[in-house]
Amino acid sequence: MRHVYECPVRWADLDALGHVNNVVYVDYLQEARVDMFRSHRVELMGQELVEGLVVARTQVRYREPLLFRFEPVRIECWVTEIRAASFTLAYEVHDVHPDGSRTVYLTATTELTPYVFAEERPRRLTAQEKAVLEGHRDPAAQAPERSPGPTQPRRSEVGHYPVQVRFSDVDVYGHVNNVKYFEYLQEARIAMMGRLWDEVPGSAERSALVVAQVDVDYKVPILHRAAAYDAWTWVSHVGSSSLVMETEIVDGQGADGEVLLARARVVLVFFDPATGRPRRPGDDIRAPLLEVMSPSC
Question: Where is this region: Disordered (predicted)?
Answer without folding.
Answer: 135-158
